[in-house]
């Protein structure tokens, strides 16, 4: 799985777990809804500033999103967060 596809899957799962629609997440992160859709479908990768906006809106750390993406790329289950 490539990075864009992996991030898209992580973003979609995290968005749904947080109870957001694409439109709701876009509003909270001050992004366009179609950009959220493109990222979720693996057509675009976020910039650092977009990653930070998304993580703030989702109330997750950028590192959580990145580590889950890396785990998906490597084909492993994401590790438990440090305590």
Describe the protein's architecture and organization.
This protein has helices at residues 3-17, 22-29, 33-40, 48-58, 62-74. With 83 residues, the chain is an all-alpha fold. It has one domain (3-73): lambda repressor-like DNA-binding domains (434 Repressor (Amino-terminal Domain), Orthogonal Bundle). Helix 1 (3-17) packs across helix 5 (62-74), helix 2 (22-29) crosses helix 3 (33-40) and helix 2 (22-29) packs across helix 4. The radius of gyration is 12 Å and the shape is globular.
Give the key terms.
mainly alpha; 434 Repressor (Amino-terminal Domain)
Arithmetic mean pLDDT? 92
Tell me the overall shape: globular
Q: CATH-wise, what's the superfamily?
A: lambda repressor-like DNA-binding domains
Q: Element order, helices and strands?
A: HHHHH
Number of folding domains?
A: 1
Query: What low-confidence regions span 5 or more consecutive residues with pLDDT below 50?
Result: none
Q: What's the architecture, going by CATH?
A: Orthogonal Bundle
Tell me the structural class. mainly alpha
CATH topology: 434 Repressor (Amino-terminal Domain)
Helix content: 55-70%
Main sheet: strands, sense, barrel: none
Number of helices: 5
Distance between the termini: 29 Å
Nearest-angstrom radius of gyration?
A: 12 Å
Count the strands? Answer: 0
């Amino acid at each position: 799985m490539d990075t864009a596809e992996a991030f898209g899957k992580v973003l979609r799962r995290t968005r749904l777990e947080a109870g957001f629609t694409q439109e709701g997440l876009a509003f909270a992160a001050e992004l366009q809804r179609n950009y959220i859709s493109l990222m979720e479908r693996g057509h675009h990768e976020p910039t650092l500033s977009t990653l930070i906006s998304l993580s703030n809106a989702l109330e997750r750390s950028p590192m959580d999103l990145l580590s889950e993406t890396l785990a998906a790329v490597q084909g492993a289950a994401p590790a438990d967060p440090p305590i």
